[in-house]
Amino acid sequence: MKYIPLFKVYMSQKASGYVKEVLNSGYIGQGQKVEEFENRLQKLFNFDYILTTNSGTSAEHLALHLLKNATYLKNSKSSLPNWPGLNPRDEILAPSLTCLATNAPILMNDFRIKWIDVDPNTMNVDLDDIARKITSKTKLIIVVHWGGYPVDLNKLDRICEKAKDMYGFKPIVIEDCAHAFGSKYQDKWIGTHGNICFFSFQAIKTLTCIDGGALFVPDYNLYKQGKLSRWYGIDRESDRRDFRCESDVPLIGTKFHMNDVCAAVGLANLEEVFTALNIQQDNSAFYDASLQDMDGITLLENHPDHTSACWLYTMKVKDRDNFMKKMNNDGIVVSRVHERNDKHSCMQEFKTQLPNLDKVIQEQICIPVGWWVSPKDREYIVTKIKEGW
Predict the structure, then answer these.
(1) CATH of 273-386, one of 3.40.350.10, 3.30.413.10, 3.40.720.10, 3.90.1150.10
(2) In the chain, which residues have pLDDT < 50?
(3) End-to-end CA distance of the chain
(4) How far apart (Å, rounded) are the C-alpha atoms in residues 70 and 217?
(5) Which pLDDT does position 309 carry in this prediction?
(6) Most-buried pick from 80, 86, 125, 384 (CB within 10 A)?
(7) Side by side, which strands form the sheet with 188-189?
(8) Separation of alpha carbons 66 and 103, rounded Å
(9) Which residues lie across from 216 on neighbouring strands?
(10) Collapsed DSSP state (helix, strand, coil) of residue 243
(11) What is the DSSP string of 10-47?
């Protein structure tokens, strides 16, 4: 029987050679390959303030760590004018429909979650729900670009500007771009619209480093402090007489940096990532054309201002359980991919009404769309869907 997976690891044939070079170099920690990988990302995105990390989750942790210590950053010219800073048990607006990795760092950093409902047309956050839930206590908002489809960042910015008029400061936005490497909003790369953003280079992402991540920050001061804080707060670039002994550390950090082995894999895969992206975007367009107006299926929004990386192809299906059984019997792996986070017992204190999510969670499903799905495979998938369930 035919078998089409939902996820698959993309690995360049050059990666083993790049890794061998590092392994034989005698230097496998954060070194020249990490610097080269960061430089390549900076050139690709035309964006200077990029910090690689050992995972996307670490990149989010690093962002929260920097914001918790914003009083330190305010000693210099930063992008946080009049922002009141984060304190323990502060409330953060965040989506429930996402990987648990989005929300775990919020709790691990001793903050509280205020859930945002889902937009059933995109699976992104419901921006109108954000507007309803912003208060004078809303200092930070986290959004996810579900499947790579960009959030309407202009509308989100207008909501935050209105909050500034009402409360005297503008909430900071963190974009979870784990699905969105290669996505664009209004023809500009996701990650470069002025918010704090983090990416994941985990095994099954479009660009993989085996594991890794990156933090994009909007100004030099956050970048400089982030560079220190991802390695205990130690300045690795200072001219020290004894390279094993650090100078003064004014703000303690942790061990979130990338290593040269993972960076070497990332460099190899980065050379070919747009081949993979183009295939999954083409597969997504094929599904859009083939499944529109089909009974029992509702496709998601596809606005020309929003260029998705198409890491997921999500749709809403009536009688989803039988649909999943049918696809499984035909050798097609399907999944919801992520559970709603608010159902977990560790998050029950934040429980609230999310009516859109209550409905969507019964219908939402993802079908294979990635670079491994051939034209013959996608024809097979559409044929099996059209047989009914």
Answers:
(1) 3.90.1150.10
(2) none
(3) 19
(4) 13
(5) 98
(6) 125
(7) 188-189, 184-185, 306-307
(8) 17
(9) 50, 197
(10) coil
(11) ---TTHHHHHHHHHTTT--SSSHHHHHHHHHHHHHHT-
